[in-house]
Every structure is written in C-alpha cells, then in structure tokens.
Amino acid sequence: MRIGIHSGSCVAGIAGNHMFHYCIYGKEPRYANNLESSGEANRIQMSDVMRKILESSFNQMFSFVERKPTVHIPGWKRKRTWWLTGEAGSSGACPLMTSSTETLSSRGESRMLRTRSC
User: Fold this and answer.
1) Region for residue 16 given its phi and psi (left: phi exceeds 0; alpha: psi -120 to 50; beta: otherwise)
2) CB 25 within 8 A of CB 12
3) Cβ(8)–Cβ(25) under 8 Å?
4) Which of 37, 41, 46, 107 could bridge 50 with an S-S bond, Cβ 3.0-4.6 Å?
5) pTM above 0.70, yes or no
6) What gap in Å lies between CA 31 and CA 73, rounded to an integer?
7) Which residues of the chain have pLDDT under 50?
8) Residue of 87, 12, 75, 10 whose CA lies nearest to 44
9) Number of H helices, E strands in the chain
10) pLDDT at position 90, please?
11) DSSP secondary structure string, 18-66?
C-alpha cells in the first residue's frame, strides 16, 4: 500500500448516464495521484503544502523526513516531498503497514483491515 497526500483546489462531480461515478478533476488531485504512484511500499508521501498544513493544524504532532532527491511530477517543476514517519517524539520510524482480520458480528463476515500504528 502506498499513499500520496496533497492539498489544493479541485472540481468534483458525478459522471455517467447508466453507471454513475464520482470523479475529482484538476491539477491538484493528479499531483496527489503522482505522489502515490512515485512513492514506496508501506509509506506515506506528501507535498510540502500538506506537511505545512499538518504541522500548523496539529501543533507539530507528526514527524516528517524530507525525501531525497526531489520528485519530478509531470506538469510540475521538481517538488520537495516528505515522508510521514510517525508521531513527533516517538522512538523511531512508524512501523510498516500491518494486516489483521476483523469479524463483523452482525453479518458474520470477515474483512482485512490495514492499520498503521505509530
């Protein structure tokens, strides 16, 4: 699993005549998609804009490591990106994604959950 996070403007809407799809359009969602596709397995990559938002909104609750070298994303100049490594002040990097099985009591179904514990 790879995750790419960015913040910016976009346009959203429903597309289709028979089979409807919720779509998000714009340069910013494509940027987040490219962050995800250029990322590494079991890591969260984010733009510099998103890192600044998280730092200011959550009172420096998270820790980040700058990705070197900078990432080239089509349609953009080389951009500085960051890895989300865990909670600030933790004793190391956030562990990799782990899988666990949860049973839904009402239906007796089971599903895989991906959790990230920092």
Assistant:
1) left
2) yes
3) no
4) 46
5) no
6) 7
7) 92-118
8) 87
9) 2, 8
10) 60
11) SS-EEEEESHHHHHHHHHHHTS-TTEEEEEHHHHHHHHHHTTS-EEEEE
**Token pair 């920092």: residue:** 118
Cβ–Cβ under 8 Å, residues 51 and 67: no
Residue whose pair of structure tokens reads 């420096």 in the numeric block: 60
- Position 89 scores a pLDDT of 65
Q: Which residues pair with 114 in a beta bridge?
A: 99
Q: Which residues of 94-106 are buried (b: 16+ CB within 10 A; e: fewer)?
A: beebeeeeeeeee
* Euclidean distance between the first and the last CA atom of the chain, given in angstroms as a whole number: 16
Query: 44-69 burial, b if ≥16 CB within 10 A, otherwise e?
Result: bbbbebbbeebeeeeeeebbbeebee
